[in-house]
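Dear Dr. H.,

I hope your travels went smoothly. While you were away I took the liberty of generating a structure for the chain from your last submission, since the lab meeting agenda had it listed for discussion. I wanted you to have the full record in hand beforehand rather than looking at slides cold. The sequence, exactly as received, is reproduced here:
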Amino acid sequence: MTAIRCQSSHPGSIRSFLQLQMVLKFVEGIGLPRSTPRPRWRSALLGLIAFIGLLLPAASVRALELRVAIEEQTSQIQLGSSTQATLKNGAGQVVAQIPAGGGFVAQATGGQVVVSQWRDQQFWVEPSDNGYVFIDDKWYRGRTQVVATGSGLTAINVVDLEHYLYSVVGSEMPTNWPLEALKAQAVTARTYVLYKRQRGTNPLFDVGDTTTWQVYGGLAKEASTTQAAVEATRGQVLTHNGQLIEAVFHSSSGGHTENVEDIWSSPRPYLRGVVDFDQGAPVFQWMEQVSAADLRQKISGVGNVLSMTPEQTTPRGRIVTMRVTGDTGSRVIRGDELRRALGLRSTLFTVTPQFGRVASAGNVASAPTVFFISGRGFGHGVGMSQWGAYGMAAHGYNYQQILGHYYQGVGLSNIQVQ
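The corresponding predicted structure, in token form, is as follows:
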């Protein structure tokens, strides 16, 4: 694995800058950005190439490639290339030439990858002239590796780090947001993926392409704005004591981010709860309604739910554990488990039961018929709030200030490949 070291380009920490004037300005509210429809690249290949512009890489940082798992444990994978490409076997030998725009199917057979008349433990698709590769239903920069495992095929996109970020920034944040917010996302995403890469244990790939890692959608999620944000911050990462930080982020905290140890187990000096500036987020406040019948299906072991009472919360009110009491018993459920079961945006919520009335019993309240769930924010609430970054950028703050607020006491450094 290529070694990474960080060289500080800005000695000292990024200083916290919050002022009361900013708080008062923000409370006045911000306008919500309109999402710009993003093109899907299942249309003509010429349209794809015309839309995506290649940017020249900066000379100061040598290329660093990531191995991103696009498909795992599948029986077959569609592959292709926008330009003429070579198909190589596991020994690096060229076994076929793929014409520009050509495609084929790789299948898992007998523990090997089978492509037409060729079979091996792995194959590579390497396009020429900065071409793009096709994996199932999306186009990607870089190369493709297909490997046979005991559970099927794994397709890996081997791609330059900065080109990977072109797509991640557009996958994680609307591309029409202020450039300073996109730059903050670029630095955060670069730091996060390299942190995960350093600690990865999978021999085949460094990261995946889902929210478990960070979302990577290929060319379809790129835009000129995301390319500009990545290039303007090329090679920049967040460090603490000379080491990459765990730069987690989320959509919206609902007004205040959390200390990491109140959400997960290990404290981090840079992941401290701070005032958020996400009041303009459409998910800043939200309401859900769950019927008693649905709740009985989603929460087992208690019968008809009668009450839901927080047993432990974070200092900001997020549910750590909730006691759910029913007519046949009660149980304590973790907040994150309850969030998944009910499909909620965050664990920052309260539950209010709505009772029906029984006329034959003198209009006495019966068991709850529906539960109203009132919540705030979207995500775990730790690290950078994306809607907070939007709000700060909209008020004229730059990406260094945004990062310095959400990650306390960190430095902005440049990576160097060894």
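Two observations you may find useful: The first strand starts at residue 4 and ends at 8. Residues 10-61 have pLDDT under 50 and may be disordered.

With kind regards,
E. W.
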